[in-house]
Specification:
The protein has 445 residues and is mainly beta. It is built from six helices and 34 strands.
Length: 445
């Protein structure tokens, strides 16, 4: 799985005779009774995307150490009692307000009675008073909670820029050595190379990309690797179901406005295909997605979990409104690990640095063909303001005081304002003064 590193550990079992969690071997270390067979725990921390395995080992060892350390602490620590001896689970110990240990208080909403007899605030377990909601173990209004969630999410979303375009990306894993950022392939596609890509974090640190990988099966995804640790990895939801109507937040950098957030819902979940026929799921949302949002994250408003990578929007030219689409995290998780993705390579470019098969970003109306030639193509690439797009693909304009006309062969011709334009069948064109008309032979009267 793309987002998972699997570590298997044994867990402690309770002795059927004395009740102690006394080991995971054959016999109880406390009373010597035979123990039932122990099972397995499978731990799936977000991780390393298969880049060499070194990070995976470090994360694995740390998690395994914490598991074993916690188990040892449980065995060695005695259960509190009046005389210092261990007691059974039927103890009636309570906190100062009368709440039994390991229970939520009925006196003060949000308080929890710990097993040592002290009250601690835990709104995640015990809720909040009134209409307030719990976030980060604090009670607050729903609007405040949304603000806190967006602030957290912005730590996971970055601004991606190169010489020809910009977009967004989401931090999905990191170690002491590198940070991994998921974005769209089309965001990085026109860069002059890996070093042309610059990543800017929420705290305005800008770092160059160290490596870029592109997803297989024509999936519009790329993975950017930067050296060092930046931001905070998003929590990725690949297991809990999502459904129409759930509230979502889209975070990215539309038109270069870094950290922009917009609210919406999941409008639909669509069975989609890449140009090569690979099947995946897209999430349709009415959260605002604009140029520059591509590669940013679509997050559940309830949990802050990443559920998709914002990819495209159907333009209003088609009469559509609020039709944005994200590649679902579940579909991303089913892709091979990035060691099996392709290495990024810069597209060849024309003399003005326009990538092949693209409209020029420097001269409106020019198109860079697949053989590296700059061609006039105003039909697809447009014209500057006050210019005509002629049939031959050329942007045409006349000097001030003259009016433009299109000749049958597709070229342009200028006549003074108030003059009439005349074209003969043989191709002769001319302008006639006001009050006159043209006749065959090239004269006006």
């Amino acid at each position: 799985m793309l987002f998972k590193l699997r570590i298997v550990a044994r867990y402690m079992v309770a002795c059927p005779k004395c009740g102690r969690k006394a080991g995971n071997g054959e016999f109880c270390v406390n009373c010597g009774a035979r123990l039932p067979k122990a099972g397995n725990i499978v731990i799936d921390p977000s991780s390393i995307f298969g880049l060499g395995g070194r990070i995976a080992k470090i994360v694995g060892y740390v998690v395994l150490f914490l598991i074993l350390f916690g188990i040892a602490g449980y065995i060695l620590s005695p259960t509190p009692s009046d005389n210092g001896n261990t007691t059974n689970s039927s103890s009636t110990a309570s906190c100062e307000d009368g709440t039994p240990v390991k229970n939520c208080s009925n006196v003060t909403k949000g308080d929890y009675c710990l097993k040592n007899g002290t009250l601690a605030f835990d709104c995640g377990s015990c809720g909040c008073p009134g209409a307030s909601v719990c976030y980060g173990n604090r009670c607050m209004t729903e609007e405040e909670r949304t603000g806190w969630i967006i602030d957290d999410l912005q730590q996971s979303v970055v601004y991606v820029k190169h010489s020809y375009a910009s977009g967004s990306g989401v931090i999905i894993a990191q170690s002491d050595e590198r940070t991994l950022i998921l974005t769209n392939r089309h965001v990085v596609a026109d860069a002059d190379g890996v070093s042309d890509l610059k990543i800017t974090t929420r705290d305005q640190q800008t770092v160059p990309a160290d490596a870029v990988y592109v997803a297989p099966f024509d999936m519009d995804l790329a993975l950017i690797v930067v050296l060092g640790t930046y931001g905070k990895p998003a929590t990725v939801n690949v297991s809990e179901p999502i459904y129409q109507g759930q509230a979502v937040i889209a975070v990215g950098s539309p038109l270069g406005i870094q950290g922009s957030a917009s609210n919406g819902i999941i409008s639909n979940i669509i069975n989609d295909n890449t140009p090569s026929g690979y099947n995946f799921y897209s999430i349709q949302t009415d959260a605002a997605i604009n140029p520059g949002n591509s590669g940013g994250g679509l997050f559940l408003k309830s949990t802050g979990d990443l559920i998709g990578i914002n990819t495209y929007v159907i333009a209003s030219d088609y009469g559509a409104e609020g039709l944005g689409f994200s590649i679902s995290a579940r579909s991303i998780d089913k892709l091979p690990t990035p060691v099996n993705w392709g290495a990024f390579s810069a597209k060849p470019k024309c003399s003005d640095r326009t990538p092949y098969d693209s409209c020029s970003g420097r001269t409106v109306g020019l198109y860079c063909s697949t053989n590296g030639q700059l061609l006039n193509d105003c039909k697809d690439c447009g014209c500057p303001t006050d210019y005509w797009c002629l049939k031959n693909g050329v942007c045409f304009n006349c000097p001030v005081g003259q009016e433009a006309y299109q000749v049958r062969d597709g070229s342009g011709f200028c006549c003074p304002i108030d003059y009439s334009f005349y074209e003969e069948d043989g191709g002769l064109v001319y302008c006639c003064p006001p009050g006159t008309v043209g006749y065959v032979g090239g004269y006006c009267e």
